Amino acid sequence: MNKQSTYSIILMGFFFLTNQCSSFGAIAITTIDGKKILLYEHSYALIVGNSNYQNFDSLPGAIKDAKDVAEALERKGFTVKLELNLTRDKFDSLFTKFALNQGNNINTRLLFYYAGHGATLSMEGDETMGYLVMIDTPKPSKDKAGFVTKSIDMLYLVQKCKMMKARHVLYMFDSCFSGTIMNFRSELKPSQISHRVKYPVRQFITAGSADEEVPDKSYFKQVFLDLIEGREEEPFKDGYITGEELGYYLKVKVPYYFEYQHPQFGKIKNPHLDKGDFIFLAQTVKQVKPKQVIVDITDKEFQEEKTSFYDVKTDSKVLKKKDNQIFGVEFVMIPQGNYQMGSSAKDTEAKPAEKPQHNIDISSFKMSKYEITNRQYVVFLNDDTSKGYSVNNYINTKSKSSKSHIVFDLDSKDFSVEPGYEDYPVVNVSWYGAKRYTVWFSERTGYRASLPTEAEWEYACRAKTKTSRFWGNNTNRACIFSNVRDISGNKNIKGLPGHQCDDGFLEISPIGNFIPNKFDLYDMLGNVYEWCEDVYLENAYELHLKQNPLIEFGGVYRVIRGGSWIDQPAEVRCANRSKSSPNDKVNYIGFRIVVKEI
After folding, report:
1. Does residue 14 carry a pLDDT above 80?
2. Angle at 81 between CA 77 and CA 83, to 5 degrees
3. CATH placement of domain 331-596
4. How far is it, in rounded angstroms, from Cα 537 to Cα 446?
5. Do residues 468 and 347 touch, judged by C-beta distance below 8 A?
6. Is CATH 3.40.50.620 what the domain over 8-281 is classified as, yes or no?
């Protein structure tokens, strides 16, 4: 598949819920007010994959994607019909029968999934139209009239869905695709299922806007299947996955894996078909026994070492190595527990976003003892880029920021660390760059790594203490435990008083130079802010579940925690919540990781 082609692969579908019970039949849901509503009695799916094009490049990946989705939907209880390599006339006949025959009942859900080429053409008045390209469609550059008559435009699909009596319809386009008939949304506020779900709806999700790249490997498809089949947890943990919830999940999740795709979602512009919301019953995440965790790597060989927490094993072919220095990620066991998250009403340093203080249960996990270092991140960069990933959205190297100590060699195409800065925390790294590191770590080890949720982070920072800082409330003792804005820093930043002590560092310090907290975690406060998993919402605490809360939707910023070397006392507290754009790459934000299910 040509990533640069204007005609990108489309994966498109109507998605209709399947019963998760022992037999697949009628599906009823329970609303937030306790009412039971019958939504679906039947589930049908039509899957189409086009590969053998007469005028466009062949797309073998489209056939595989179509088959993967067909098999997954059969497992989910759909009656599935799979068709491959359709002409325009054959598609029209097949789709019309499917829409009118299988879609002829209000209590029915239909799914249509298309894998193949797609295109966007301009129209008058700055409008655009999206098209599905059939195997006999000519290229518009050579025969525009033929292209329009031999392809399927979005207006056709909208008209067909209006003819259906099915309750809910969701189109999914795994394509860099656009069209002014679509009413895209930018954000989603998490909410529980209400009676409005029973109303008809015609929804859609696209993998990106026009002219964005589409990779040969469909991350859009894989993220979708991982969610509905329970390999990933449901975003808003209420037992249901709505169409809008799925759309926003893809919008957030797909760029983790391929930064050039930014999915969009919405409903068609029709007041009679935009009130409901498509529903999947959530499936329990499957527990997979992990195999290994990377702790130690040398240039000559990868050694198996025993740490205080687990045995370590890995393959010498997995990672590209730069020198004989040991690369280590050391973890600390954080026990399960309960704590008061946030700040009390009496706390004079607290911000409104830290309230209300609320009781939280946290399951056990392992957290990296130190912030991820330049040395560790370079190993990831050299390995990850060898697979074709771009790092432009991950980190600013030395050529882009004088504060970065990671260097890219244009000749060897390798990354390295400036001598003397190997054990400094990596900075100038975006949230996407931090998140991609956790994905890479998981892929390489078999363990489930992630950024900490902010609930996990605050629990780990407090380490069973109840004071504002893990050492107490005295801000002038900070320099024993953390690298902060101190008396030397005050000289450089006028008008912003710092801590009345001297930590010995003017800017960022190497990891492990201060006293750890009671969980034996270093630099939880000060030095650099740390990216968290959560989307930042001012009212997040009003939405928190009691057990292991996580906010994944509803905002554009991500949570950063812990304060940094430039921050005043009010910012260097366990309860302090700050935010940053996930694209930000600055010299005071880094990250650490957590590992679960070990």
Report:
1. no
2. 145
3. 3.90.1580.10
4. 32
5. yes
6. no
